[in-house]
């Protein structure tokens, strides 16, 4: 099931733009009250798409004067996706717009909202009520969180966000669909500029992927290296790791380039993984090897919170929340094209994550083909600081930056929120990473 990224962005103009709400250009707007909650419904005349949302639910973002909107965008029969939009806490009328997508594949972006970079958090909180997150990314930008799955296609829009700088941020399996969405936006923008098609320009300026899964070959060969050379402790002994890598390279990878990960030709790779799985430690969290299994940070308190009937009604949802779904399609990455098009890109990762480890992220960054690739690969990594505090190591050449975050697991912003906000701001400002 695929949905239209551009429709999501465009529909925000009907939500956040007063002019569009009062005088929609091509559609019908109505107000409905359900269970005591007021919903705004806008149906687009040309496409048949419908957006149904609640304004200022009072859930999560409680900063005075900061607006929020949550609800569903429907683009066909039984085809809806949930979104939650938060205005920037600072100058929302001129602030840029950023989209957050979690990975999985098929995982809800509420994970990022409540545990990583949203306006409220349960991290380091006792009890079942979230508190405001001082390092929320809507400190700088208008933030849109959209649940999976999602695809890309231009369809309709209006002017409210047309001239805004726009960024896409994601993690984990977002290493596939983040670049895919970005590449499509860039290619459509070129076609619009040339007159080949008619459409609305989206000014994509930034792509950020933390702890991403980019490429099977890179992931398979680098995980054993991470397992023996991470800064915490070995997950497997060196001799087994070397044998593991040897079998991957000789028996698995030759067939990978000829097939999809879901085809039978991949079975030798699965067999090798199963063979060597017995040699790995098992008493650690794969999302943060510093924690014993299954890991309890970031906490999952938000799941029960979102499943509460009162909260569901306030934010305008009609299905019970679940964290992930496996009913998704496979996507491929287009990082080369995105970086070559001039989009400021950050590849970064928490260094305690064994799911999408930083060794693989570093190799993926080095594999990106762009005009500064040689200089980037030759550049020596340097210490990265935020407000004078050492937080990792990095390198930046041209529009591409790579960052390893110390003391962070798979959901890097949850572990190092202040540093993550700095990375986000620099990326949205079209600035290569630099220490502060």
UniProtKB/TrEMBL annotation:
One annotated GO biological process: proteolysis
The UniProt record lists the keyword Signal: yes
Superkingdom classification of source: Eukaryota
UniProt signal peptide: 1-20
Entries under InterPro entries matching the protein: AB_hydrolase_fold, Peptidase_S10, Ser_caboxypep_his_AS, Ser_caboxypep_ser_AS
UniProt keyword list: Carboxypeptidase, Glycoprotein, Hydrolase, Protease, Signal
Record-level GO cellular component terms: fungal-type vacuole
Similarity-based family: Belongs to the peptidase S10 family.
The protein, known as: Carboxypeptidase
